[in-house]
Write a structure and sequence with these properties.
Elements (H helix, E strand, L loop, with lengths): L10 H26 L2 E6 L7 H17 L3 E6 L10 H7 L4 E2 L26 H8 L2 H9 L6 E10 L1 E4 L6 H4 L3 E4 L3 H9 L3 E4 L5 H6 L5 E4 L1 H6 L8 E4 L4 E8 L1 H6 L2 H34 L5 E4 L2 H10 L1 H11 L1 H11 L6
Parallel strand pairs: 1-2, 1-3, 6-7, 6-8, 9-11
Antiparallel strand pairs: 3-10, 4-10, 5-8, 5-9
Bound molecules: (2S)-2-hydroxybutanedioic acid (LMR).
Length: 347
């Protein structure tokens, strides 16, 4: 049955005309919005937006929007919203996300054992030494090597040095005995905890707080920016400033996505990322210093420092890990790191 004809000027006609005009108005707003971004790049990460990695990701988003006039949009998914650190690498390799910034500790188990060099306990004393590796020839070669793991390595970002948290201060190896400590999925970190007499427990970052609150694990190691922004203070009574290891990131892209870009867009994205990484690296230490200042004022949390002698003793306790992992990391790589960036020190 055909609908009765609508007379021009009738109430029904006016209603239909106004609905039509309203829809057109909506279309004129929606269509440019939908068309504004010709290319959407998903960047997934596991930490809070107000961390060195979170801020770098937001800055990259802004820089890409500016440089492309909104034609390229970076959608940032923080806090393991899209993928956790147990499945993000696989998601990248499958093309379910275009860009990630996993911690360097995640690359060893993903098939790039040379990245385990960054996990060797007490290898680096300063961020300057780390940057000598990440920002020089060695870093370039590490990024290029990621092609074997179906990733395009785009750059490095610092977070900072890790500190230990637990129900008690961890000032000497005996204090670690019997504690279940959360680690990232890294063989070196597992060996480090065992060398200290603790039980390493591999857990995704996003599950760490709950595991601490429920007593599944007793403690963890984190840069203070992560400790603060994950809200770990209420579930950990002490934080010991051990600076025993470095935590940083490699920004990586899916190779098919990267190859599908036109030369101009690839350059635009790489330039924006280089700037976001440079700014991020310049502010990471300050963010951690601010986080530490906040934590020192946090009621119920005790912050302990190591004496020089305690630090030396802890360093000695984990030395066997260096010998055990030299071959896995690669002896020439270790030699280069030590000769070029650590003043030739032996370990
Ligand atoms: C972790 O799992 O502890 C880290 O990978 C978190 C981070 O900073 O990405």
């Amino acid at each position: 049955m055909r609908p009765p004809p609508v007379r021009a000027g009738s109430k029904r006609h006016l209603l239909m005309v106004s609905v039509w005009l309203w829809l057109c108005a909506l279309c004129t707003v929606w269509v440019p919005m939908a068309q504004a971004a010709e290319l959407v790049v998903r960047l997934s990460h596991v930490v809070a937006p107000d961390t060195p990695k979170g801020l770098m990701a937001t800055r990259f988003q802004q820089l890409v929007a500016q440089a492309s006039g909104g034609r390229i949009r970076v959608d940032v998914y923080p806090d393991s919203q899209l993928y956790g650190d147990d499945d993000e690498m696989e998601a990248l390799q499958l093309g379910a996300v275009e860009i990630l910034a996993p911690s360097l500790s995640k690359f060893g188990v993903a098939g790039a054992p040379e990245f385990d060099v960054f996990d060797l306990p007490f290898l680096f004393d300063t961020l300057t030494q780390v940057r000598c590796v990440t920002q020089g020839r060695i870093g370039q070669e590490l990024l290029q090597g990621l092609a074997r793991q179906q990733m395009v390595g785009l750059g490095f970002l610092d977070n900072g040095f890790k500190q230990m948290s637990a129900p008690r201060p961890l000032l000497q190896a005996a204090d670690f005995k019997g504690l279940r400590l959360r680690i990232q999925a890294s063989r070196v970190l597992a060996a480090q905890m065992r060398a200290l007499g603790a039980y390493p427990v591999v857990l995704p970052f996003g599950e760490t707080r709950r595991a601490l609150a429920e007593g599944v694990v007793d403690g963890a190691e984190n840069p203070v920016s992560n400790f603060l922004t994950q809200g770990l203070a209420p579930v950990q009574r002490t934080l010991t400033l051990t600076d025993h290891g470095y935590l940083g990131y490699a920004v990586v892209a899916n190779p098919r996505f990267w190859a599908s870009l036109g030369e101009g867009d690839r350059t635009l994205l790489q330039r924006a990322l280089n700037q976001a990484l440079a700014e991020g690296n310049a502010r990471a230490a300050a963010l951690n210093a601010q986080a530490l200042a906040t934590l020192k004022q946090t009621p119920g949390l005790q912050v302990h420092s190591l004496s020089a002698a305690q630090r030396t003793a802890l360093r000695q306790a984990v030395q066997p890990v260096h010998a055990d992992f030299a071959r896995r990391v690669g002896t020439p790589l270790l030699r280069d790191v030590k000769n070029l960036c650590l003043g030739g020190i032996s370990g």
